[in-house]
Structure formats: structure tokens, C-alpha cells
């Protein structure tokens, strides 16, 4: 079946504006097409247009105040005929939004969907996911865009790539264990109920530190010199940098640049960035998938806590499914368990 | 001397890869400005960095050549700073897990004393070698007071070889750089052309009183790209330190300095250029790379015989003269030609004579250096064999060699087409000799009066008459016979 799909403004289509929701890239025409755009076309899907997004997807990182552009995009999606929006929800904000609005967000395992042609924000968490109305449709679309792509150097090897990543390329943990979707099983997945973690606030802080650091690096290419927004009046190079970035970046991006520079600075690296990386490792290693396939966290009535497990899955690179009542998280590569639950729920 | 100079070196060497470090653009030097640029190396978003495996292999090669420990797992990290020649705003380098550690190189310690015939060696230890990407090039246009950026060099792979502070004289520094250049060019890791910027170095220098354990205040001279300038800069800078220590004329501060070759002085760079916090962090876009033993052994198998081992083999086993052996063993290209031709001709001494005597003369006549000579080795071998077999004489051989070198002719066809085969037919030679004797009766008389030296003149005349093709040995014999009868 052919679905109608929108692409977030950070997913490039050759010759079309790719703004990443930022004034900085308001005039930037994509030089290439993203792997997912090609996959969708090859899979007979219809790319119906662009979806608005918060600036570099950073809204919700530092506070809970809603982003107008994102809210508008979700509102429009709720009332239009499109089936899905592809987006890079590294902060968990879109997943939390979806839960509140009765939509569904599927966040795949880190390295499942090629990031070739995605404007990078936070490389250790960037992953294209699917915002959809019907979960089973979302999983169908995910199946089309997932798969190994040699143009993204941090992908999961998949069963049919002939072992493309052979020469000791491994994941961020230094292990070689990750393989996609290896445990397809006919039996329904076993669900374990999760409670709000004691240190939920720390999840948030780790995300802020890591995202700020990586964002500050990834947005430093926008300096007003080669492409993107350039300030009109300047007297020297430094002023061109400063004015261009000051005039074009919004509050969240300015915060990212400042906090990122601070946590990576020689004085603070160990205290903040390094510590956040260590804690991320501890959190990753804290889940033991013995005796169950899926963690289910049931949201509070207002759904405000939905973001916690979304953040958890992004920090750990694990697949997750956010729906109105709850967030499901599975082990790396086990999207299948999530899709079975989604389909069972629909029925 | 009361003082001791202590120096450490950071040497940047561009790797001889076909393509850049993180994209498939050509890494070749000398293209039109911005010819070798794609959206990825121009810093545009959306193209994940993919590591050039060959660059890692060359890094491993550098490690083997410098006796280094090669890391099992390497990472690539981001070094953040703003500069127009750096389109992404960060340089990808190896800060946390460099490819090589704890290497060493032995140099001939020039000026280090020792008996006349044995040059003592000094071991220079290396802290690490890491791989990183080069930045672009700024082209300043004074006329329009503007600056243009050329991204051809952006993301070209480099290694930075960081030594410990083991140097005490400029002679040692120069000997080290020459040795490094020899090792790396020989193994094809880099072409190490200082004039093209593919080898450049930063010198960390300090001066202390002899016997003092604590190092003096350190300054760094950046971006040196000529051996001559390096020696001069070290002499100047160490003297500046000594003067400051002795007279207190200026206070030494830790700083980065720039060498002005015209003025022969170093100058402090602006503070802004030095006080940078690079905010290093692991690049999450590039997964750590594991280097296993098999990879290292694969690289080792591709490395040519090291120059010093080749030198030993040429002098000791093959009995070639030291000078010739040095010339051949120090050039990877001449070594290759020597080995290939010797394999066909199996006369190492002849081959060496032909390379040193004829080939280098022909190539330098055409302005081509030994490393750049491109000659068909089987044609070269053929010429040597033809001379050896008496089919052509040596002078004609050299002429044919020039043609093979310049116009890539087939030697046998060329000899045939130009009737260059050696004339060794007694009748033809005798009539040529008779004619020369007749034309030069005065000279013949001189010879008969005892002047031996005119004999050579007569031989020359006969060679001329036969178009240079006569067999010189026969000419000698016949002439002697005929002139005395």
C-alpha cells in the first residue's frame, strides 16, 4: 500500500530547501537527497511535502515550553490526510507530543535508518523515526526506510549486507554484538512493567549536556561564510561570525552553543561531558533483558512524564514506541516485539 | 658551552592516499582551486564522515617504520575552532586514542662527536603518531584586499608525528627530518615534499643550564617547511633564549612564534592565535576502529625493504660501491628500477653503473629527478643486454636509452630504424680506418714520432666516420695494426 508521508525539514531532498527549522538555513538548497527519501520513493510511497520542525529539533531540551512551529506541525498532521511524518526526535519531545495527542511515535534502534542526507544535530542520538496515526502503518514505513547504508558510517550491520562493516568497526561501547532484528519469534513478547526511575531528573541533565556538546560542534559549520545566513554589515571576520550566528540562531541553539562550549572546555570536560558519558554507560548497562522483551511504562494522566522513557531509549540507542497511555522500550534490534504489541493493541 | 638546548618536534606529513580522509574527493596536489571539493568536504550538513581505510593503513605503516606500538582500538575526535579554512568548524583528529604510541628512530648524530669513520647514532623517541584531516588554504589577494578559500586541501589525510624532547642540536633535528622523509617516502606513506607543504613541522624549544633537570621556558615555532630555515630558526631562537637567560634582556614566556625567513627572526604570534581551548570530544559520527594483528601484518607485507637494509645488501652481498649503493637505496624509485632490471639482466654491477652513469644523466638532462623517473624496465634491461652482447656500443646504448626515456620507443626497433647496430665487420672498419689515416697524415706522423695521445684523436675520427656505431674494441685493435704497418 502507498502511504502519504511528510519529511521533517532536516531531511534533505535534492534541489529543495532544507532549513532544519532554522533561519540559518532558510536559503539552503539541499545538494543531495536523503537515503530515506530515496527508499520511500523506491518503496512506492508518496512524499507529500515538508513538515515544520523546531530549530534543529532542539525544542524541549532545556525547558518544557512548547515550540510553536512543532505544535503547528502536529496540529496540521492531526487533521490532514497524511499517514506519517519522518523526523529526528533525539530529544524525545516529538514522542512526548505524540503521546499527549493520541498519535504514535516509533523510534528505531540507533543505526537502523541511514542518516545520509539528514542535517545532523546530535550524532550519537540522531535517528530518523516515524510519527504516525496508526502504529502498524508506522512499522510498515519503518520497514521501508530501515536497512544498512554504507554512506552512514555508524550503522548496524544487517543480515543481508554481506558483512559490510567488517574491519573492526564497532559501536560506541567497543562491542561487536549488535545485529538487527535477530530474534523474530511468533510468540507474543513478554512485557515487564517499569516504574519511573529514581534518577529521572539526571536523565534529563545527561541529555542536556551531551546534546549541547554535540549540537555546538555540529552547528559550528554555520559561520556565515560558505552557505546559510550571513550578516550584512560587518567589519571583520570575527564580527561576521558573531553577527551571523547571533542574528540567525534562536534561543535554544544559542543555549546549545554556550552550554556545549562550556561542558567541552578544558576546565569542565571531566566534570560535565565525561561524567555524562560515564553515566550514559551506566544507564545502558543497567537494563538486563532477562525473562522479558519489552519494558512498558504507563504515563501519568497528564502525560508529562512521557518524555522520561523517550529520553531513556535515546540515551541507550534502544527502540521505543510512544502511544497515548504508555511508552514501550525494547532491546536493540528488537523492533519486532514493539510492532507485535502495537498490532495486538490495534486488534 | 654552559647551556643545553632541548627540543621536541611535531611533524605533519600528508598521506599518499588517492582520496581524502572522509570523502571520495581526490587528494591530489596541484589541481585548480576548489576542483576537488564535494558537499561533504565543503562542510555542508548531511553527509556522515566515512573513514578512508587506506589512510589508516598508511598510519599503521608509519607506525611499523618508526618502531611504534600500534593501538588496538583507535578513535576519531573533534577539535573545535573557527577559521575560514575549516568549513565544518571542527577538525577531525585523534585526541583520545591515537594510532601509534612509543615509537623511536635512530639518527646519525651529526656533530655529536665520535671517531672519524663511525658516526654515532642517537635514538629519538616518539610520543605518538595520530591521523587527522588537513585544513583548506587561504589565498590572500592584496590588490582587492580580499581573501579567497581553496578547499582542495580540506580533509586531505595527514599524520602528525610527535617526538619527545630528545633533540639538542639543529643538526639532530635536520638529520631526524631527513631520516623520517627517507623512511616515509620509501614506503610510499607520503611524498614528504616540504616545498609543497606535504611535510611541515613545529619545533618546541627551550634552553636550560647544563646539568639542570628542569626544562626551561618553552616556545613553539610553527609551520616550518624548509630544512635550511629550520636550522636557522633553531639557531636564532636558542640564542634568543640564552641571551634572555644571561642578560635578562627579556622575559621568556610560553608562546607560539612565527619564523620570518627574510628577517631571520622569530616573532610572537598574536595572543588570540594561541590561547585556544579546542574543546576536544569523541566524534560520535565515526565508530571506534579496531586494528587487529592481521591488518598490521597485511600492511607490513606491502612495505618495501627498508633503505638501510637495502644499502647493506647492495654493498655487502652484491659488492656495489658505497656511493652508488647509497644513491640507489635512498630512492624508492631507483631501488625499484634496480631490482626489476637486475632480475632480467642478472648483472647488478652493470645495472648499477647504468643507473648511476647513464639513466641519471639522461633524466637530469630532462629535468627529472630520480624519484620521478618513469621508464619501462624491460626496455632498459634490453639496452644493457644489447651492449653487453656487443650488438650496440655503449655510446649508442646511451642514445637509445635517452629515446626510451623521452619518447618511449622500442629499443630494438629504434636501433634498426636508425641503423645503429654496431659495425664490427672488419672490411668496413678497415676502409674507414684507411680513409682516416689518409686524411690525417700529419697526426699519423706525430704518433709515429712517439706521441701516444693522438691515438685517441684518431679513434674519435674513425668513430665519427662510422656514425658512432663502430665496435670501439675492434677499432682500437685494427687501428694499432694498420698504423704500425
Model description:
The complex is a heterodimer of chains A (347) and B (485). With 347 residues, chain A is an alpha/beta fold. Chain A has two domains: 4-195 and 288-346, Alpha-Beta Complex (Amidase signature (AS) enzymes), CATH 3.90.1300.10; 206-274, no CATH class. Chain A has ten helices and nine strands. In chain A, helix 5 packs across helix 7. With 485 residues, chain B is α+β, with helices and mostly antiparallel strands. Chain B has three domains: 11-201 and 254-290, no CATH class; 304-417, no CATH class; 426-484, Arc Repressor Mutant, subunit A (Orthogonal Bundle), CATH 1.10.10.410. Chain B is built from 16 helices and 17 strands. The mean pLDDT of chain B is 89. The interface between A and B is large, with 50 and 37 residues.
Summarize the structure.
Chain A has 347 residues and is of the alpha/beta class. Chain A has helices at residues 35-42, 68-79, 93-100, 135-145, 200-218, 237-248, 251-264, 269-286, 306-316, 335-346, and strands at residues 4-8, 46-51, 84-88, 104-107, 128-132, 191-193, 294-298, 320-322, 326-330. In chain A, β1 (4-8), α1 (35-42) and β2 (46-51) form a beta-alpha-beta unit.
What is the percent of helical residues of chain B?
40-55%
**End-to-end span of chain A in angstroms?**
19 Å
Enumerate the spans of chain B where pLDDT stays under 50 for 5 or more consecutive residues: none
Q: What does the overall shape of chain B look like?
A: elongated
Report the sheet with the most strands of chain B, covering strand number, pairing sense and barrel closure. Answer: 10 strands, mixed
* Shape designation of chain A: globular
Q: What is the total domain count of chain A?
A: 2
Q: What is the H level of CATH, i.e. the homologous superfamily of the largest domain in chain A?
A: Amidase signature (AS) domain
Q: Strand content of the residues of chain A, in percent?
A: 5-15%
Count of β-strands of chain A: 9
Name the structural class of chain A. alpha/beta
